[in-house]
Amino acid sequence: MAKLTNKQQAFIDQYFLCNMNGTEAAMQVYDCKNRQTAASIASENLRKPHVRAKIDERLEENTLAANQVLYILTQHALGDIRRVLNESGEPDFKKAIENHATHTIKRWKKRTIETKETTVEEFDIELHDPQAAAVQLGRAYKLFTDKVEVMDWRTDAIMAIRSGDVEYDDIAEVFDDDLAAELFREAGVPVAATG
Q1: Distance between CA atoms of 186 and 25, rounded to whole angstroms?
Q2: Where are the domains of the chain?
């Protein structure tokens, strides 16, 4: 496999910094002023097997495996604010680190309020939504199934039979006796009770 040039390595680094936008990466690395030229350079770089291989390698290194995703979602679902608060009930980032709970934190904001007498630090802290995480886990484990209703002529006929809008003879006239009997069975309506 060919060795990466310094520019190609810089392009790969910039490619990830630019959220995998090759044109933007090429504009910065190759000092392009024209977007079409940058797009052409990016396209050429991304088609080179050794550049593509390095990008794929980095993606693999920095992509969560399925079990890692499930672990993080489980931690969010089981998130407990006590794991990030000190004994005084104040947010404590060191405690969060010690408890391996930093990934359960969605937002952590520190505000300093100064008055003439004192300076007070306040924290706003929000954990990831445990219910949303539980729903995502439920979907991953296929605990929920979405009911999909398919409407077709059979479904329409069965609904009409159940509502009493059509009788056996009407169905048998359009189709045959076997299909009419089958539709009435599926509708749960006894054939003898129809007309």
Answers
A1: 62
A2: 6-61, 68-137, 153-193
From residue 183, give the alpha-carbon distance in Å to each of 73, 148, 151, 186, 195.
Answer: 46, 21, 15, 5, 15
**26 vs 113, residue with greater confidence:** 26
Q: Is the pLDDT of residue 28 over 50?
A: yes
Check: CB of residue 102 under 8 Å from CB of residue 91. Answer: no
* Spatial contact of 76 and 129, defined as CB atoms under 8 Å apart: yes
| Encoded tokens for 104 | 């359960």
Considering Cα of 62, then 68, then 69, then 74, what sign does the dihedral take?
negative
User: What CATH number is given for 6-61 in this structure?
Assistant: 1.10.10.1400
Q: In the predicted model, is pLDDT for residue 146 greater than 50?
A: yes
DSSP label at residue 175: S
Judged by DSSP in three states, 10 sits in: helix
DSSP letters along 93-134, please? HHHHHHTT-GGGEEEEEEEEEE-SS-EEEEEEEEE--HHHHH
